[in-house]
Write a structure and sequence with these properties.
The protein is an alpha/beta fold and 266 residues long. It is 47% helix and 15% strand. It is globular and about 65 Å long.
Amino acid sequence: MSTPLLIERVGDTVVWTLNNPELRNPVSEAETIAALEDAVATVNRDPSVRAAILTGAGPAFSSGGNIKHMRDKQAMFGGSPAELRQSYRHGIQRIPKALYHCEIPTIAAVNGAAIGAGCDLAMMCDLRIASTTAKFAESFVKLGIIPGDGGAWLLPRAIGMARACEMAFTGDAIDAQTALEWGIVSAVVDPEDLLSAAHELATRVSANPPHVLRMTKRLLREGQHQSLESILELSAAMQAVAHHTEDHNEAVRAMLERRTPQFSGR
């Protein structure tokens, strides 16, 4: 297997490209899981990175699990029920945990089919842009299995329970335009414009103070399960830190002086 994840730094943005196009970029291989996990850990430690774009090499975004491995009961799909449970817990489930705890905003540039766990992988990102050739399918039922990578948690939060149920119960694919109408993606562009559109969005995100971006993302994450009172307390603590950053001072000066701010990450 070639390098499972290509990593490219473009200014303040890092681009992660799933790199197994011959198999349509499955995410059930141990090497791919580890590569995604390591990529997130790297940006979490690097304050100079302000946004990440995730896309796929070749015509597909990700086919999800390796169907041949399922058929042959190989790799993470082999073993007894108890062994399979551990394979999921210590294998593919590491991806949603890693992306959930990624401190920087993430953008899925969905270049083609996002099927099963590939669909869920797109939902793990904060923002999504699709090519006109993209399609999305929560197709686990068509293989006689359930969403084993957190799709039952991710999909309803992205598009609401009724539409998530429709996708999960039928397993049917939806096209890019439907994904736009349903709120899965925020934009649909021609294939040749996909990465430039993702970079344009990343630039708009990374134009803001990096520490505040990371704290804002953490607040949004915590707001999904904490009470209003808890979020207000956490917001007060983070706001106190934000007010004492040089970037805050620069933002206020730039607004009063009607100029573009220059943020230093301090």
